[in-house]
């Protein structure tokens, strides 16, 4: 059969003529060979890895990995064909394998970094995770084609990122409020200042204009009055008749002068009153400006105090958390130390018990070996004596010095006593025997000595029998019935 794989597939051929496996895009499938196909297209795996930072703060790392076999390396394809291709790439087996590697490397890396380092160095953290995961995936012939790490998410019950975002948001909002208040203050103060300056300049110009106008009018009137007065005086001097008329005219002129002076005084007072009113308005504007400024300062100070109090409260909470964590860490280390001491004590006792057991075993083995050696010795000795148990027993008694011990014990027992001493004799000699002895003393002396020794044996055997209960062997003779009875 001639088989052809598609563009994203490979043929894996095994069987006769192939040492291990063979990869091909197209090939003849010979009798005794089998083949299968596996797909090279990558697959997206979505995970939510739960990790914990160095401060023991848990967080969730959502990630999407695009993973597939490495197509540019034949050795990696061989590993993938052997290890992964028998399973469906969408099966739980492959997904759990990839997920286990990613979660393991992510948790190990996150445990060595603080939450601030993870949050600020997201790019470096992502790169480090990819390198560690790729290193583990190489042994399965897999390659990370693409990976995307989403925003870090809080674990329910541990809202670190939420509180951090709220803190940043509150700081930005408070700063914006301060900036707005300061800008409003500057605008209002500037507007009031420009309005006051405008009013002041206008009032000043009006007052100066009125003063100059009044002065010009007064000067004109003065010149006019002076001329008229001179004319009238000249006329009065020239015309006496008109003296009364001149007096009335002088009185009227005096009234007119008084009115003129009053007008001048009123004009001066009006100008002063207007200046006082303008000054009052300026003072009111200044007071309003200072009031707004104090309000802004107090608002800024209150905001700063509020932020300070919040920061102090957060610091106290963080400090108490760290103290609690330190106490917990100390307790855990003490428990671990106690556990280690208990294990060491148990190990030492176990070693002592093992040593005692070893010594007992060796002692038992020595006793067994000694017993075996003594058994071989006794069996060999019994075989050498032809299986004669009596001779075997007598040999052991003689070799062990039993008779010497018996004699020693008897001697110790009768020391200081009046023992009953038995004298063994072969009896009285008859007359004929004496005669024969007299006639043949030299020829029978040796035989008499031997006969005397043999006569001593029955009483000796009798004594041993009475004290030990043992009978002499058959080859040494027997105890006469007259003696035993």
Kindly describe this structure.
This protein is α+β, with helices and mostly antiparallel strands and 485 residues long. The strands form 3 sheets. Strands 6, 7, 8 and 9 form a 4-stranded antiparallel beta sheet that branches. A 3-stranded antiparallel beta sheet has the order 3-2-5, covered by helices on one side. It has a two-stranded antiparallel sheet with strand order 1-4. Strand 2 and strand 3 form a beta hairpin.
Summarize the structure.
This protein has 485 residues and is an alpha+beta fold.
Which percent bin holds the helix content?
A: 55-70%
The shape, in one word, is elongated
Please, how many helices? 11
Structural class: alpha+beta
Amino-to-carboxy terminus distance:
115 Å
Tell me, rounded to a whole number, the average pLDDT: 76
Number of strands: 9
In percent, how much strand structure appears in the residues? 5-15%
Q: Which spans have pLDDT < 50 for at least 5 consecutive residues? A: 428-440
Largest sheet: 4 strands, antiparallel
Along the chain, the helix and strand elements come as EEEEEEEHHHHEEHHHHHHH
> What is the CA-based Rg, rounded?
69 Å
């Amino acid at each position: 059969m001639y088989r052809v794989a598609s563009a994203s597939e490979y043929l894996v051929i095994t069987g006769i003529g192939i040492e291990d496996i063979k990869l091909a895009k197209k090939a003849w499938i010979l009798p005794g060979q089998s083949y299968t196909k596996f797909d090279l297209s990558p697959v997206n795996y979505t995970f939510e890895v739960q990790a914990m930072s160095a401060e023991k703060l848990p967080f969730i790392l959502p990630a999407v990995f695009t993973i597939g076999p490495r197509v540019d390396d034949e050795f990696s394809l061989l590993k993938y064909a052997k290890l992964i291709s028998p399973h469906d790439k969408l099966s739980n087996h492959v997904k759990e394998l990839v997920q286990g590697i990613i979660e393991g490397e992510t948790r190990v890396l996150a445990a060595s970094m603080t939450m601030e380092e993870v949050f600020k160095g997201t790019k470096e953290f992502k790169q480090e995770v990819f390198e560690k995961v790729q290193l583990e995936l190489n042994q399965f012939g897999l390659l990370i084609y693409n990976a995307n790490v989403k925003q870090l998410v809080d674990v329910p019950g541990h809202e670190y990122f939420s509180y951090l975002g709220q803190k940043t948001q509150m700081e930005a909002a408070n700063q914006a409020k301060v900036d707005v208040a300061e800008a409003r203050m500057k605008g209002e103060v500037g507007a009031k200042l420009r309005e006051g300056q405008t009013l002041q300049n206008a009032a000043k110009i009006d007052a100066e204009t009125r003063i100059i106008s009044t002065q010009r009018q007064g000067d004109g009137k003065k010149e006019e009055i002076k001329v008229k007065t001179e004319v009238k005086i000249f006329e009065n001097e020239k015309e006496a008749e008109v003296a009364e008329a001149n007096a009335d005219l002088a009185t009227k002129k005096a009234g007119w002068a008084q009115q003129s002076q009053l007008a001048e005084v009123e004009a001066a007072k009006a100008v002063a009153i207007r200046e006082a009113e303008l000054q009052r308005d300026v003072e009111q504007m200044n007071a309003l400006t200072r009031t707004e400024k104090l309000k802004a300062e107090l608002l800024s100070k209150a905001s700063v105090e509020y932020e300070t109090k919040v920061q102090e409260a957060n610091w106290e909470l963080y400090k108490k958390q760290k103290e609690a964590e330190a106490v917990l860490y100390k307790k855990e280390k003490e428990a671990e130390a106690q556990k280690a001491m208990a294990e060491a004590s148990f190990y030492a006792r176990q070693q002592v018990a093992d040593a005692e057991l070893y010594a007992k075993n060796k002692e038992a083995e020595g006793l067994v070996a000694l017993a075996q050696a003594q058994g071989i010795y006794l069996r060999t000795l019994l075989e050498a004596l032809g299986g004669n148990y009596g001779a075997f027993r007598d040999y052991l008694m003689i070799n062990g010095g039993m008779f010497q011990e018996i004699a020693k014990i008897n001697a110790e027992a009768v020391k200081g006593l009046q023992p009953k001493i038995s004298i063994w004799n072969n009896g009285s000699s008859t007359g004929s025997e004496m005669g024969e002895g007299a006639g043949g003393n030299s020829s029978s002396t040796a035989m008499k000595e031997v006969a005397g020794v043999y006569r001593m044996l029955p009483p000796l055997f009798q004594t041993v029998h009475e004290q030990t209960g043992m009978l002499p062997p058959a080859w040494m003779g027997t105890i006469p019935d007259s003696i035993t009875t």
